[in-house]
User: Which sequence fits this backbone?
């Protein structure tokens, strides 16, 4: 990958002249089954640009999940920068939103004097805050049909769409066929150093390029980044199934999907996700708190099966040490029931692998 970056043929991409970027974008568009693509520095910018292109009129409304990445983790950019109003629909545990609830959230034209105008629906696949769940092609098609019925556009935040494709056994172009635009992260499961890519129609991408420049995302010789992304696309997509297999080993579940594992910590153990992650870091195992009671671990192609077993052993050792230490003084809850002999197996009481 670094050799490809060093040898990349480059030019000025702002002036649409970087040959490596052009080849990469054309290849992504072909794989995704869309007309065109554009490289952007981050997934957050990719989603922001996509929403703003579809919602060109300020005060437009987008329907999206109440637990979606765009709504929670992207700094409210669609509102603060784009003047787009988010209308949330409750996410189900599997990452979907009930179709009837989506339809009920669409503003009726008769209320245009009072309400924002609905122009866009956003889905997320895989859905990060719902445990990395994969959204089925059947569900996506149904939402696409609903969008077309009401004259709306459909955008998919597909940061890990290739993981979803591998896990579901559905070609990625078919998985996003119903979408008008898709953002794909290149630096997560695919393992490129930086960047995302947006795909859509030629007209959509033309507008997206202009917005990318407006938002400060117009870079010059981006061929060095696109060369790495091309290697990731060429070499690492086929490795995703093995990432999923190793995630299953980590979770000990035959029903696991994708590259992420979430596990809950029994609250009675008095061990916080933060303290466990800090303890694991001392063993060279990096994990992150997913909530006040759960921890998130991500597997990628550079993690071997032996690394997975080492991480599992490290978790057991870290839990044992934390149990021996007892509750931290910062805990406000009653600690009289503390039992330092609590078995580590009872501390982690549920794995969700997705």
Assistant:
């Amino acid at each position: 990958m670094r050799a490809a970056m060093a040898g990349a043929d480059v030019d000025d991409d702002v002036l649409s002249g970087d040959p490596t970027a052009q080849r990469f974008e054309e290849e992504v568009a072909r794989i995704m089954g869309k007309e065109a693509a554009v490289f952007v520095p981050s997934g957050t910018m990719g989603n922001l640009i996509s929403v703003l292109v579809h919602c060109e009129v300020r005060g437009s409304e987008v329907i999206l999940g109440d637990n979606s990445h765009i709504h929670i983790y992207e700094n409210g950019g669609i509102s603060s920068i784009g003047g787009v109003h988010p209308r949330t629909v409750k996410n189900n545990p599997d990452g979907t939103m009930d179709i009837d609830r989506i339809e009920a959230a669409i503003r009726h034209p008769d209320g245009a004097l009072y309400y924002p105008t609905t122009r866009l629906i956003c889905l997320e696949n895989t859905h990060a805050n719902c445990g990395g769940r994969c959204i089925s092609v059947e569900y996506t098609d149904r939402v696409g049909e609903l969008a077309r019925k009401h004259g709306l556009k459909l955008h998919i935040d597909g940061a890990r769409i290739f993981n979803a494709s591998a896990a579901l056994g559905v070609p990625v172009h078919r998985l996003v066929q119903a979408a008008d635009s898709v953002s794909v992260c290149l630096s997560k499961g695919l393992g490129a150093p930086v960047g995302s890519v947006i795909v859509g129609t030629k007209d959509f991408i033309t507008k997206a390029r202009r917005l990318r420049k407006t938002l400060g995302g117009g870079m010059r010789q981006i061929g060095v980044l696109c060369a790495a992304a091309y290697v990731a696309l060429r070499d690492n997509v086929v490795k995703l199934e093995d990432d999923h297999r190793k995630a299953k080993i980590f979770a000990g579940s035959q029903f696991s999907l994708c590259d992420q594992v979430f596990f809950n910590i029994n609250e009675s153990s008095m061990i916080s996700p933060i303290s466990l992650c800090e303890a694991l870091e001392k063993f060279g195992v990096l994990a992150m708190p997913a909530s006040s009671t759960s921890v998130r671990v991500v597997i990628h192609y550079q993690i071997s099966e032996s690394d997975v077993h080492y991480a599992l052993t490290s978790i057991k050792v870290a839990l044992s040490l934390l149990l021996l230490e007892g509750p931290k003084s910062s805990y406000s809850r009653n600690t009289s029931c503390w039992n330092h002999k609590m078995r580590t197996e009872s501390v982690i009481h549920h794995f969700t692998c997705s």
